[in-house]
Amino acid sequence: MGDFTRRGFLVTGLAATAAVAAACAGSGSGGGSSNSGSGGSGGGGGDITLRFLSNHPGSSKATEQALIDDFQKANSGIKVELLDGGKNYEEVAQKFQTSLSGGDKADIIVVSDVTWFNFALNKQIAPLDDLFAGAGLKPEEYVDSLLADTKFNGKHYAVPFARSTPLFYYNKDVWKKAGLEDRGPKDWDEFAQWAPRIQDAIGSDKKAIVIADGENYLDWVFEGWNWSKGGAYSDGWDLKFTTPESIAAANQLKDVMSKWGRLATTPENDFGAGLAAVTLQSTGSLKTISTSAKFELGTAFLPGPAGRSCPTGGAGVAIAEGISAERKAAAMKFIEFLTNTVNTSKFSQATGYMPVRKAVVDEPSMKAFIEKNPNFGTAVRQLPVTRSQDNARVFVPGGGADIGRALQQIVNGGDTAAVLGALQRTIQGKIDSQIKPKLPK
């Protein structure tokens, strides 16, 4: 099951040579104006109109449409229709799933770290490797582990697009008032030591920390917290919810949140409004928080040892199975353009999501952007020391939601060991009934 066990650490990072930068700075746009030999644009067959189903991660609808417009100018035989997939990745997945049983199926779909595997397992999205060359897509130009995150049975099922990690966001004004150093805590034990001072500084009507509730990715932001304490959701397909380390981490979450924090549907909004001094949120929320915050904003790595404290996350773009070879070729041509060096730089600057091509750090506008926006630089520096996620969260259908609900139950006072025991039984049942029968022998 080598391809099913995610690599433990992202070791490649974003560094690239000037030669690589020069080689792919125009990738996908200059060459993309000519028609692929495998079809998909121009010729006597008329135009192709591709349907692109997206939740517009990071409030990116205008940016996505601008990139579509640029692509259409360079590829006169291919049109792209941008479809609203809903407010989050789960709603996109549901709309795509519904379309499979009737109606107009999307050709290109935004699939998240949590949703892609089930579609791949059930042969609803296509393996992409055989389409790369025809679109001029060079896999080695992507951040290796971001591309590897959607590899199953030796094939890639999505190309990185709106990739993210959680960040530790903090209110520097509160930090100064509390007399703290201008940095994030080394680990969660240190945060717990700081929390009373942070709470006093921000005031009793507000909270030291606000994080997502169980319906809004508490399971994701706690994953790194759990790792930092030596716990895990799983190791491969071996579940680890009930280990002493995982129980201790969940108990610390309960203790911190009961004394100094609360859960919220939109923690980035509450934090930006000054209602809390800390939040853990996606890099994709950076622009929103930076715009709304009326205080000096700080960002830091997630607390804990580098390399075992921060998960990858976010989404890629996939191609539906069951469409014609011509449509697949055209779709891959668009995906290559959407994620080329210049365009991933534009998308990252507009949203805060991670640049997915190695050469982006040498792209002039990105270098200037990081210099002007050091908080975004924090996210880029953290990327090489992040860790791919546990199977129990991202490969089990509904696993993330199950974990989120259990963690919320614990925060709300539930018995930690009992709740995690019940969670482990639920997840194991799904693995046994929904995944193992479909895995290659």
From TrEMBL:
The keyword Signal applies. The lineage of its organism: Bacteria, Bacillati, Actinomycetota, Actinomycetes, Mycobacteriales. CDD domains: PBP2_UgpB. InterPro entries: Bact_solute-bd_prot1, SBP, TAT_signal. It comes from the Bacteria. SUPFAM superfamilies: Periplasmic binding protein-like II. It holds the Pfam family SBP_bac_8. Gene3D superfamilies: Periplasmic binding protein-like II (3.40.190.10). The keyword Signal applies. Keywords: Signal. It comes from Tsukamurella asaccharolytica. This is ABC transporter substrate-binding protein. Residues 1-25 form the signal peptide.
